[in-house]
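Hey,
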Amino acid sequence: MQRQPIDLGETNDLALPIDPGLDQHHAEPGGASISQSKADADQKLKMAEQAVQIAQNRAAAEAGPLIELGRTLALMHAEGGKPALDAYLRNVSLPLRERAAQTIVNL
């Protein structure tokens, strides 16, 4: 005589039958607080992800002009060599020196 397997329906990790109509959050004491805690944790995680994205955007915005300046100086050096860079730095520093001198005079 051969035995037929018994169908217990869906089971959880403990191999116990699960009643699909049973709302587990409300079936056990504190279930609602567990759901609220999970929702709070999910919200904090989302806020942390947004904070990381904002920090990355700010870093990219700050680095962008410096990266572009580096490319410009590299191209200038490739085309004109060290004399071209020296002339550029001399011309860039003149307005800064004039402002510094004006600040000292105003003091």
